[in-house]
Specification:
By secondary structure, the protein is an alpha/beta fold. The chain contains 15 helices and 16 strands. The protein has a six-stranded parallel beta sheet with strand order 4-14-13-12-11-10. A three-stranded antiparallel beta sheet has the order 1-2-3. The protein has a three-stranded antiparallel beta sheet with strand order 7-8-9. Helix 8 (196-207) links the parallel strand 11 (185-190) and strand 12. Helix 8 (196-207) packs parallel to helix 9 (225-235). The longest helix has 27 residues, at 328-354. The N and C termini lie far apart (44 Å).
Length: 373
């Protein structure tokens, strides 16, 4: 039996978006879903209980960073990632590929894998598809990723084709090496740059390997939004309808809604925590830079329509004061709110799908948030 099961609940008559549920060894979660990113076995600024209070059902951790420190062997000795970080709900880990390939001048791509130097101390390491799976096996996450080759935007056609072919070869090696299909679901990653024919080729090749889920990588890397939407519209329909679809590294409100309309089930991004640490918050009326002087005497909540702890208990003026004073509580409160905002947004998306009105919801949200409708 596979480690996870996707259950289709409803399709929106207005858009075709789908409402579903993914069942894992550590519980189930409804989709479309936004997954907070806990890069180093923690979502920055948030405790597990606080994440539960904002209805986070699944979080993501990073294979590369946990391999670097504290080391996958230590996490295995601690009983796996769930026990190590005291999180009893589902966890997804990426393969580390994006981080390894983003090292640019510090790495060397070979057919067997990638030689790279640590961003921490410059030490030399070698990641192979088998190594990426071994690390994730030790971490014990519920959903794990194949090791793939991430290419920059823009990339030439021939380079994109070569990278997708290598990604397919590596996916086969990951599939053969992974021994825990009953407890860990291994997802293939569709690559192919910004070329629809290559995306199709990648998807069809990966589907032959019969993964329990499929990710779409290499998007939201600087390309125009219209190009990303076009790639999704041509790629997602190729993927199996009875398995989850995960769009990697995407988390802005517009991308979440547009991705859901195009059939995506799972999203993740560091955006809410990163911009929160820089003093920017997501609200029902758009982005606000709460550090700005105009909020110094604003005694209303960060977002009057938000039900999170931060909005129910503190004012914009207070949060601004904390940020200006470099108090840790300030970035905890902005992080808390931003994560709740996106998790609640996806809750509203799911409700709109259930009621066959996601297209109308999109237009209403975009107008309120300040996006072009």
């Amino acid at each position: 039996m596979p480690a996870i099961k996707y259950e289709l609940i409803k399709q929106c008559k207005q858009t075709g978006a789908r409402l579903g549920r993914v069942h894992t060894p550590h519980g189930s979660f409804d989709t479309p879903v936004f997954m907070p990113v806990g890069t180093q076995a923690t979502v920055k600024g948030m405790s597990p209980d606080e994440l539960k209070s904002i209805e986070a059902k699944i979080i993501l951790s990073n294979t590369y960073h946990l391999y670097m420190r504290p080391g996958n062997a230590l996490v295995r000795e601690a009983g796996g990632l769930h026990k190590f970080m005291n999180w009893d709900r589902p966890i997804l880990t990426d393969s580390g590929g994006f981080q390894v390939f983003s090292l640019s001048s510090l790495r060397d791509i070979k057919e067997d894998g990638v030689i790279f130097r640590s961003h921490i101390d410059g030490s030399k390491h070698f990641f192979t598809p088998e190594k990426a799976i071994e690390i994730q096996n030790d971490l014990g996450s519920d959903i794990i990723m194949c090791f793939d080759e991430c290419i920059p935007y823009p990339s030439e056609y021939n380079y994109a084709k070569e990278a997708l072919k290598r990604t397919t070869r590596w996916a086969k090696r990951c599939r053969e090496f992974h021994k825990y299909m009953e407890t860990q679901a291994l997802f293939g990653i569709v690559q192919g740059g910004m070329y629809n024919d290559l995306r199709r080729e990648s998807a069809l090749e990966l589907m032959e390997l019969d993964f329990p889920g499929y990710s779409i990588g290499g998007l939201s890397v600087g390309e125009p939004s219209e190009l990303m939407y076009d790639i999704l519209e041509n790629t997602v329909p190729l993927l199996p309808a009875d398995k989850p679809r995960y769009l990697m590294g995407v988390g802005s409100p517009d991308y979440l809604i547009e991705g859901a309309i195009r059939g995506i089930d799972m999203f993740d991004c560091v955006l809410p925590t990163r911009i929160g640490r820089n003093g920017t918050i997501l609200t029902s009326e758009g982005r606000i830079i709460i550090r700005d002087a105009k909020y110094a005497r604003d005694y209303g909540p960060m977002d009057p329509k938000c039900d999170c702890y931060a909005c129910k208990n503190f004012s914009r003026a207070y949060v601004r004061h904390l940020l200006k004073a470099n108090e840790v509580l300030g970035i905890r409160l902005t992080t808390w709110h931003n994560l709740r905002f996106l998790i609640n947004l996806m809750k509203m998306v799911r409700q709109a799908i259930m009621e066959d009105r996601l297209g109308s919801f999109r237009n209403e949200f975009f107008e309120s948030f300040g996006y072009k409708v």
